[in-house]
Amino acid sequence: MLEIQSKAIRIEEHGGPEVLQLVTVAVPAPQNNEVTIRQKAIGLNFIDTYFRTGLYKQPLPHGLGSEAAGVVEAVGADVRHLKVGDRVAYGQSPIGAYAEVRNVPAHQVVKIPRGVSFEEAAALMLKGLTVQYLFRQTYRLQGNETILFHAAAGGVGLIACQWARALGVKLIGTASSPEKAALAKENGAWEVIDYSRENVVERVLELTGGKKVPVVYDGVGKDTWLASLDCLQPRGLMVSFGNASGPVDGVNLGILAAKGSLYVTRPTLGTHVTTYAKLKAAADELFGLVAKKQIQVRIGQRFSLADAGAAHVALTGRKTTGATVFTLD
């Protein structure tokens, strides 16, 4: 295969949305363990902004994004589970998904089942697999638990609301407005706390009859850290999986003792899907719920790659609901 010319987003320096540049790059033939994908839709995630600002380090210059869906255009010599023409998606890849065409390690790519569109797959993979590892691996929900999940109207949050309902779990969500609270409830949240008007800790105590919750899933970070700890039962688990408001730092471990011998973990998707077999098992569970209509992805916003900066502004400004995708012709 000859080199392919592809439009892609690159950054030369860390900073605000203005550092995103749409450029033309050369895509070489795939390595033995890679596939070349002509992408149809790309997922936007908060982690992309961490790489843009430099909160998460990556040598410059670099691309952005780790989630997309498209069609296999070429296959490396050692790849056996994929072929040219397959409809595929990935949610955990080397940085650089903001592109028309790219090479991706084959063990990070799965086929898209029939009935799932490219846009749905691009919106589902990272967010859906995040919920899978949170709910089925980090703290394995059995059903009948009452849990707290922050940012319940976001892309990950809406999938979490639906997955919790499918498991028979009472999800208490948090949201920043009555509109977002209503959206989370529509998607399966048991109750939603509007933190712009209500005290989260007090409402959790009320909703649980003073028992609090065994686990808190927190993708917000700095702003919700202490409140989250105050919502946990003794020996409860604080799952801090994101930094939307900034990273949690300077933690005094004595606080965990004082608040009830609490546990804390800072998990990532990558360490839960380290092999193709683990990735496929997680994706199969996700797509199985999609096939049963127990999870339906809500795409609230669509942008072109050229408007990546505007997409980042909308996301960080909390102007988005559900998932956001970049669409490609």
Automatic annotation (TrEMBL):
This is Quinone oxidoreductase family protein. Pfam families: ADH_N (PF08240), ADH_zinc_N (PF00107). It comes from Candidimonas humi. InterPro entries: ADH-like_C, ADH-like_N, ER, QOR-like, Quin_OxRdtase/zeta-crystal_CS. Signal peptide: none annotated. The keyword Nucleus does not apply. CDD domains: QOR2 (cd05286). Keywords: NADP, Oxidoreductase. It comes from the Bacteria. Residues 15-326 form the Enoyl reductase (ER) domain.
